[in-house]
Amino acid sequence: MNEVILKLRGETLEYSHCFLLGTGKISDNQIIEFDSYYELLQYSQEKKGKKLYFLGVENFDDLMLIEKVRKADKKSVIVLISQFYNLSSHIRDFNIEALSIVEPVETVEKIQYYVNRAVNYTFFNDSEEIEINGDILDLRDILYFETDFQHSRHIRCILRNGEKSYNARLRNIRNLHPSLMTSSISNIVNVNNIVDIDSAKGIIKFERPDKIAYLTRTYKKNIFEKIKMNSNLKDSE
After folding, report:
1. Hey, what CATH class is 5-124 in?
2. What gap in Å lies between CA 162 and CA 110, rounded to an integer?
3. Domain ranges of the chain
4. Which helix (H) or strand (E) is 115 found in, with range?
5. Where is the HTH LytTR-type domain (predicted)?
6. Which CATH class is domain 129-227?
7. Would you say 36 and 9 are in contact if contact means Cβ atoms under 8 Å apart?
8. pTM higher than the cut 0.85
9. pLDDT tens sequence across 9-67
């Protein structure tokens, strides 16, 4: 595996041991130069049997790259970097296990932030805690997150005992830990704390009988695949 240096508009991205899969200029000293962030078309790191791909999306046709990567490597984790507005609305039909959507990114600092976050999320996130706006939460206490509107900046975290409110977007919560998964446009659930699913009614139950999350058909398959090994789960369908 070659050690390389990635540079964006002349500034170094601190990320090495990468394979370059797409376009870019490779000089003799293994420095890869990109003129703009969406020229970071594809690169991956091989670790723990997975490959991480960054796909730059300049137009809708480029979304077909997702299917090509998934067919070639079913264990891949894909991060989209795009100038599209509301890119997530265009990719709901793609069945991808772990997909991080990066909205328009204009600075090297932001690129570096998303690179690090994706790498940590994919390969190194064994922590039992997450952080939201400086507040540390124990995953064992989290049942699910909910919001009243799909694009609202206000979310509620439902805990084993009580709940907390945050100024944050629901879509960003999913990337905080692999056990947090989308179950509907208004819910993200902690799959480790699910005790029952009623598929007919489209609801997810937890140890708190007064609290339920919703499950829609779009996300049903991924939820069941993630928790099929949980012995305490039974489908009421």
Report:
1. alpha beta
2. 34
3. 5-124, 129-227
4. helix 108-119
5. 134-228
6. mainly beta
7. yes
8. no
9. 555 554 332 333 333 333 333 444 444 444 443 333 433 445 555 555 555 555 565 56
